[in-house]
Design a protein that fits this description.
With 643 residues, the chain is an alpha/beta fold. It is built from 26 helices and 23 strands. The relative contact order is 0.10.
Amino acid sequence: MMYRSFEDCTSVLGDVIEIDYYLARTLCAESGQSDNDLLFHLVLALSVFLRQGHSCLPLAVIANEQCFASPDADPQTDGLPVPAGYRFPDIDSLRAGLSSVDLSPGAGRGLVLDNGRLYIRRYWLYEQEVSAAINQRRGDKPLTDGQMEKLAGLLTACYDDPAISADSSEADEVNWSKVAVANSLIRNFSILTGGPGTGKTYTATRLLLALQELHDGQLTISLAAPTGKAAQRLNESITLGKARLAAQGIPDEKLNRIPGDAKTLHRLLGFRPQAVRPGYDADRLLPCDVLLVDEASMIDLPMLTRLFRAIKPDAILIMLGDPNQLPSVEVGSVLAELTRGEQNRFSPSAASTIARLTGEKRLKVQDNVSDHTVTLTKSWRFAGAVGELATAVVNGDGLRGWQLLEGRADTKRNHAAKATEPGEDSRLSLIEDANLTEWFEGFVKEQVSAVSHAVDLADAFSAFARFRLLTPHRVGARGVEALNARVETLLAKSNSAIDPGRHYMGRPIMVTENDYSARLFNGDIGLVWRNSQGRLVACFEEGKDEAGHTLFREISLVRLPRVETVYVMTIHKTQGSEFDHVAIVLPEHDSRLLSRQLLYTGITRAKTAVTVAGSQAVWTQAVQRVATRYSGLGAKLSSQPGG
């Protein structure tokens, strides 16, 4: 081996950490290839790719590439040699260099080479499990004439919605919500995608009602989402959906069959501290006939594998999500992989059944199509300026997005910082770098300070939900850590009770580690508040009572797991959340973390107003960069019959 030690390796290669080095050494030795420098560098690259969220390393991507160089290092400043990196050979040389070792799936080694993709075996097995589970659930389920007639009548009643009927344009469009319900009724695996406000949970509520009708109300249904906030929002959306159906005359006895108690995926599967396996897996299956999972873009490959292991072979799995959002923090981009290719295409048999159920005969028919996905295309609440900005970003039109920001920017700082009241038209604000400090101080004074001035806990949570400062990074002058510190310093000038870094009345906190005993999970957000005894405690929202009032749970400060101040959040951490006004603070310079999906995710957290603070150059670079996750899952699915 050309490197005697980790230190020797990092003197030549940048971006390599200890786990990369020791994984490469271990797997090369296990394969009997300790002196194979090419394989060693490929495993180094594979380890780096895994840390970046890819499940594999495609050889075609790495061929002819100079990797592990550190172009930003300055030997005169750092006093250290600049890592020169390693250039991989062309694709034919890569294949020839690997021909001396059997890395086929059947060889049983820690490395797997499959269709030009290099894997750690564990992730190759994950993809195999998921693709097999989905393929097992593929295919249409036949419905009897009696079932068709009953379901068609129910769907007619479900979609006799005044809100839709009032929109004259809807009569000329395919009702994709109705089509999605019909499509999911004839299969055990389906995905419903769409941007914000397109009615995914509106549709899901009607689907669950129809499934219960099809099975005479005997189904056990579970609801889940990746985070506590996303689960809470799913509960709220289902409750609203049931209320709308009740207003349309659907009897309570039928609506009561739809649950409203979504759990986090960790809680659903029964994860416990120090436990090697979750409570539910292949040996102890979840006791549900239907599982509906929201915010599926946040699900990583290992979690989806565990989910498929834990559900019954004949259980119905329904996934909701927006594939244009950021992928999961961990390995995989499963929603994007599962929804690749043209959407809203149906096999002849599926199209025929859907037409009988809905009366919709304008569907596009295609043989050998993967028709488990329906995409909702009409946004009912996400129109106006914010919707236009999100559309420009997802289409890669950075110039159009910037022009929207410039054309709708408010030149009066105080007005730009003021969150839009519910019911007003959505609007945009642009704060360029030169005005950032003044705007930031105004935003803190007018928006952030409203939390500590709230009259009670419910008012404080309401005030905190009206805004959120977002940034792509944790570190740096415009990262989460620095901006949160700036907020607390500014607040402390007018409130002596605020002690930055310590607990104080009105401090917003985010849990950063799972604590199963306290039922607190990474990403949960609460407020420090005084309880009825006058003691500071941590308070977390916990659903609503029958009257619709928010319930809160108190946790002693000494029982809290690790938490951090959260006036400012990374965009990644906001997935599954929603705020009235979102302010996105861009870094001063381009970063490889910036991407089209990141901006889209940040923008679509806003209900009414978006402020972007930063330069056009950084904005444009972010919109142009598409975050790509390499995987073989989509190829495994598309290679199957009907895929």
